[in-house]
Specification:
single chain, mainly alpha, 2 strands, about 70 residues
Length: about 70
């Protein structure tokens, strides 16, 4: 993930707020983090379906790993 990616996510969220006429149109950190986590989860799901990663459960969480 690079700074340009983050900048584009902020622009996307800000544009959505402006289109919905939500003021102020600034983005709070949790909104940005939720979007990044959502996109990361989508990528993980694709990698899992392609068989490139495996998922296991720990006591409190899910863990992902590459099974060589």
């Amino acid at each position: 993930m690079d700074k340009e990616y983050i900048l584009e996510m902020i622009k996307k969220l800000q544009k959505e707020k402006k289109e919905k006429r939500i003021e102020p149109a600034h983005i709070i950190d949790i909104e940005l983090l939720n979007l990044v986590v959502s996109e990361a989860r989508d990528c993980l799901n694709i990698l899992f379906k392609e068989g490139k990663i495996k998922v296991t459960r720990t006591i409190n969480h899910k863990a992902v790993f590459v099974d060589d």
